[in-house]
Design goal:
alpha/beta, two-stranded antiparallel ribbon, 13 helices, binds flavin mononucleotide
C-alpha cells in the first residue's frame, strides 16, 4: 500500500475505494454544504510562505515543547470518534504512530478503544478528550477513569452542544451502533476486505461510554449543558493539564485563561459542526494576540500537508501553536464532492 500513496489525496482516493461509502463519508463529510470545511483548507492555502535562503539548515529539528515537555513533532493526532470503522485496528495503528513519531494521540470519548487500553498502547503519548452529555456524573466518571489510567492531559471539547447536521451521514443512514439495512448491506458487500476483516475482529463499539454507574452516554445525546460553570468544576476536579477545544473567539479564549485552563485549541471542529462558522485559521492571530503568553494555543482545521502552509501568520504564531490533524483527512478541495 505504501508504494501507492505519495500524498494525502492519494490516500483519500485509496480510502474511497477500500472503505464502504458509509464509513468513508462519516470521515470525509462535514456539516451542511461543507463550506466551513472547505473554507478551512482554502484559508490555509491562501497563506503563502516566503522562503529565505542562505541560512545554514544542515541540522533541522521539528521538536517542540508542550507544557514544558519536549515532543518530536509540533503536531498530534486529533480526537476522532470510531476510528476502527475506518479499518479494523486503526486505533492501535494510531497509538503506534504516536509513539514512533513522538507526538500526542488524543483519545476521543467516542473512540472504539477504551481509555485503559489506549493508555497501555500509547503510554505518556495518550491524552483524553472529554464530551459531557446529559449526565455530568457520567462525564466525571470518565475523568476518574482517565486519571486512574495515568492520563495527564485532558481536553474538553466545547463546540458540540448537539452533533452537527451532516447530510452525508443522514443519506447513508450512519448511526452508532451501526444499523444494517438493505442499503448498508450492499455497501458492505461491495467492500469485502473491509467487511470480512470487520466481521473477523468484531464490529467496533463505543468503548468508553457503555458502563458508567448504570448510565450510558449515547452518540446522539445533547451536550448542551456544558457551560462556563461546568468548566470551573472540571478545573477544580482535574489536577493535570486542562485544554479547551473548539475556541474561535478571543473573549472566549480570555475566559478560558481566567478559569485556569492550561491551553486552548482554536478549532471549528473541521467544519463538522457549524457550516457557517469562520475558518479556524482566521481566528488564530486575534486569539494569540488576546491571550499573549498566558496560555498555550493549539490549532486544528484545514491542514492537509506540511508543504502548503503553516498554522500561523507569523513566526511567533507558528512557534506557539501546536496543530492537530485528522487522518485520513476530510474534504480535499479537488474532489470533495465526489
Ligand atoms: C472522523 C472524525 C471524527 C471526529 N471526532 C471527534 C471527537 O470525537 N471529538 C472531538 O473533539 N473532535 C472530533 N473530530 C474533530 C477533530 O478532532 C478535529 O477538530 C478536526 O478534524 C480538525 O480539522 P481537519 O479534519 O481539517 O484537520 C473528529 C473529526 C473527524 C474527521
Amino acid at each position: 500500500m505504501s508504494n501507492k500513496i505519495f500524498s494525502l489525496s492519494d490516500a483519500r482516493k485509496y480510502a474511497r475505494r477500500r472503505m464502504p461509502r458509509m464509513t468513508f463519508d462519516y470521515i470525509d463529510g462535514s456539516a451542511g454544504d461543507e463550506r466551513a470545511c472547505a473554507l478551512n483548507v482554502e484559508a490555509i492555502e491562501a497563506i503563502r510562505m516566503l522562503p529565505r535562503v542562505l541560512v545554514n539548515v544542515e541540522n533541522r529539528s521539528l521538536q517542540t515543547s508542550l507544557f514544558g515537555e519536549t515532543w518530536q513533532l509540533p503536531f498530534g493526532i486529533a480526537p476522532m470518534g470510531m476510528c476502527n470503522l475506518t479499518w479494523p485496528g486503526a486505533d492501535a495503528m494510531l497509538a503506534r504512530a504516536a509513539r514512533q513519531y513522538g507526538m500526542p494521540i488524543v483519545l476521543s470519548t467516542m473512540a472504539s478503544s477504551s481509555i485503559e487500553v489506549t493508555a497501555e498502547r500509547a503510554g505518556d503519548h495518550a491524552w483524553f478528550q472529554l464530551y459531557v452529555g446529559e449526565s455530568e456524573e457520567v462525564g466525571f466518571h470518565l475523568v476518574e477513569r482517565a486519571e486512574a489510567a495515568g492520563y495527564r492531559n485532558l481536553i474538553l471539547t466545547v463546540d458540540v452542544p448537539e452533533i452537527g447536521s451532516r447530510p452525508r451521514e443522514k443519506r447513508n443512514g450512519f448511526q452508532s451502533p451501526v444499523h444494517i439495512g438493505p442499503k448498508q448491506f450492499f455497501d458492505f458487500a461491495f467492500h469485502p476486505q473491509w467487511s470480512l476483516r470487520t466481521l473477523a475482529t468484531g464490529v467496533p463499539t463505543l468503548a468508553n461510554v457503555n458502563v458508567a454507574g448504570g448510565k450510558k452516554f449515547k452518540r446522539n445525546e445533547a451536550r448542551g449543558k456544558v457551560d462556563w460553570a461546568f468548566l470551573e468544576r472540571l478545573r477544580a476536579r482535574w489536577q493535570g493539564k486542562l485544554i479547551v477545544k473548539g475556541i474561535l473567539d478571543a473573549d472566549d479564549a480570555e475566559d478560558c485563561v481566567t478559569i485556569g485552563a492550561d491551553a486552548i485549541i482554536v478549532s471549528n471542529h473541521g467544519g463538522r459542526q457549524l457550516d457557517g462558522a469562520r475558518s479556524s485559521i482566521s481566528a488564530l492571530p486575534e486569539i494569540v494576540d488576546a491571550v499573549g503568553s498566558d496560555i498555550e494555543v493549539h490549532f486544528d482545521g484545514g491542514i492537509r500537508s506540511g508543504w502548503r502552509g503553516t498554522p500561523g501568520r507569523s513566526r511567533s504564531h507558528a512557534r506557539r501553536g501546536t496543530c492537530y490533524r485528522s487522518i485520513p483527512s476530510p474534504c480535499q478541495r479537488d474532489d470533495r464532492h465526489a
